[in-house]
Structure formats: structure tokens, C-alpha cells
Amino acid sequence: MQFDRRAFLATLGTAAAINAMSSEALADALEDHMIENLDPETASNELKVRLGTGLLFGGPLPDGKAEGELKKLEPMPEKPTLVDFFKYRFTPATVKHVLQSATDALKKGEKEELILACLVHDVVLNLIKVDHGWWGAQMMEPYVSEKVSWGIRYHQALRFFPDPTVGYEYPEAYNQIFGKDYVPPPYVKQAYEYARNHKSYMDARMITVHDLYAFDPTMKVSIDPFIDIIGRHFKQPKEGLGYDNSPVAHMWRTFIFPDHPL
Questions:
Q1: Which SS3 state, helix, strand or coil, does residue 194 take?
Q2: What is the mean pLDDT of residues 99-106?
Q3: pLDDT tens, 117-134?
Q4: Taking a C-beta distance cutoff of 8 angstroms, is the pair 168, 208 a contact?
Q5: From residue 70, how far is each of 37, 123, 242, 252 by CA, in Å?
Q6: How many helices, marked H, and strands, marked E, lie in the chain?
Q7: pTM tops 0.70, yes or no
Q8: Can you tell me whether residue 37 is helix, strand or coil?
Q9: Is residue 168 classed as helix, strand or coil in its secondary structure?
Q10: What is the rounded distance in angstroms from the CA atom of residue 120 to the CA atom of residue 218?
Q11: What beta strand segments (E) does 49-188 contain?
């Protein structure tokens, strides 16, 4: 996906603010910028929240409302499912991105667990952007296989390191933004080295492969081809997500009730 380097840097603030950001934070901001540009109605708006804030809590609005005026959310079903969160809570740009990623995996004949991982790998960006791989894995862990959650956790680190054996090259967009001498922070490199030697390495690596080609604003996508895959591989709690007393139920409730002050 092509992008306007100046427009991206303008969203980050002053030169001093940009220089104060870590390379990891800059990379997350770039991916977020590219996801937001999948929705042409929001691409020209300026983000006025901290960069680590989840998309549900601020930023450009798809209906063109004035800055600071949040879109009224539809009430969630009494026992919400994963699909309900796609319909009522995850932002359109994020949904388009992960659906493109999962569609690419589906078309290329990947196993269903990997397709599910691609489908949910970035939805946590609606809640929080900082260390989204770790947050995303934790949010999904009670409901998916270890392969899926492990892959989500480590895709964040692996995206900075090429693997020609599966056709994953270092993103050219990163070179444009950070320069060719960019080195990820130590904890990201440590996570990569751990993942690279792990038996489940490829579960995370293939998410990055399908993630790299999931920024086409013209592509038409739908959740419908993935309904059965979700049914077979996502452990939907009978009480509904957010009400099952799991260690991460509060994360899903935050999506359900983002306007609650306490």
C-alpha cells in the first residue's frame, strides 16, 4: 500500500515528539495509519488522542462528526458473540484489515486455525495499541487454541524480521519511515529470537505473511466466509463474551461499555 510520508509524520506531532518516540512506537503508529487509510472517510481527519489509545475511544469518526463528538454505539446483545463484536464494536477500518488478512489466508489454502488467527490478530487495536501482540493474545487466549494465541502474541515482533523462506520481506514502508539502519528495541529482538527457535514459529510467521498484503482500500470483504471457521475454532462462552468470568472477561466488557466512567 502506498502512503503519504509527510501526512503520516504530521499525525505524530512536532519533530521533537517524533524524536522522543521509540522505533516500536513509530512502527505501531505506521501500521495504525495504514489501517485507518483503509476507510477513506476517516483518512483525512487528524487523530487527537494519545497514540496508544484504542480506536474505540477516540480519533477520526467514520460519519464525519465534529472532533470530540463520539459516535453513539448500538447496544450489544445480551450474550454477545465474537461476530457481534465485529458488527457492533470493532471499527470499520480494523475490520476491513483483518478480513483482508483472513481472506488472503483462506484463498491460499491455509489451515483453519491460521485463518482464525489472521481474522483476530489486530482487533485488540480497538482497545489498545501498545504491545498489541501481547494484549491481543491475552484477550483471545481462553477461547482459541494455543497455536492461535501464540501466533498472535509473536506476530508483533516477527513483522520486523524478514524470512525469505516463506516470502516475507522487510516492509519497504518501514525503510521509508525509519531508515534502512533501523534496529528494533531489545525486548522486540528478544521476542523474535525466542519465537524463531520455537516449535510454533511458523504459526506466528504466517500471520505476518498474510498481514503484509491486507491494506487494500478497494477490496470488498465480508465476515460471512468465516462464520463456520469461528464456530469450529472459537470457544464461545454460553454466558456471552464479557460475562463468563474468565481472566479476560473485563477486556470484552470494556468493548461493551466503553462509555462507563468507572
A1: helix
A2: 95
A3: 999 999 999 999 889 999
A4: yes
A5: 19, 19, 23, 20
A6: 13, 0
A7: yes
A8: coil
A9: strand
A10: 21
A11: none
